[in-house]
Amino acid sequence: MDLGIKGRTALVTAASRGIGRACALSLAAEGCNLAICARGDEELQKTAAEIRAQTGVQVLAHTADLSSLDDLQKLVAKTESTFGGIDILVAICGSPKRGSFDDITDEDLTNAFAATVLSLARLVRLVTPSMRAHKWGRVVTVQSRSVRETIPELFASNSTRPGAAGLMKNMSRELAADGVLFNTIVPGRIMTDRFLGGVESSKLGAEAYLKSKIGDVPVQRFGTPEDIAGVVTFLASEKAAYVNGAAIPVDGGVIRGI
């Protein structure tokens, strides 16, 4: 299936590994030129080289801290000067600190808001002028199951990620007439470093921890970054022209709500 995005430019954040890397590679396979960012340059450059070798597309690798407005401004300016604009934004942010209400300080909660909501708002503000000028754009953010239901020991995430989904829903109504569509991915239990980080906090061994987490996943397996990337790429495409303002679970059925 031709998704109709060959030659488009996609900016993918947190793209050196995990879900971000899988999304970047999937978009590149569809012929998108890429700008990718992460905080660490060495791993980012390695990912960029691998994507170039596998797909032949142009890849701009730019280090950026999503909590820094200056870094985001430079990232977007460099992308636009290199490719002439940005058509697709895939916004993936850092994860808020683990812990229950009693564990999370005011500073932790402020940092969580900055990571999940403020960084997204800044990116949207920076990239959408180009999209609106061209009357075409796709913004997809990958958030967390905590958008739809609270998760134990993730008070900061439970408190802030629904705000990111609310931002996306708001923008889906404000900019749809300009051809810019906004959608949120709600991932389930995906095998990433973040998910595996729960092993240490659980005080269980890795095998026992994973067994405890897979029992209520109806498809009886954990998700992969590629599971997320396939849906992200569809939402970024011409084929998803009537999908707007959605929060789509990619979770193997683990979310119990309708």
Automatic annotation (TrEMBL):
InterPro entries: NAD(P)-bd_dom_sf, SDR, SDR_fam. It comes from the Bacteria. Belongs to the short-chain dehydrogenases/reductases (SDR) family. PANTHER family: 3-OXOACYL-(ACYL-CARRIER-PROTEIN) REDUCTASE (PTHR42879), NADPH-DEPENDENT REDUCTASE BACG (PTHR42879:SF6). This is SDR family NAD(P)-dependent oxidoreductase. It comes from Pseudolabrys taiwanensis.
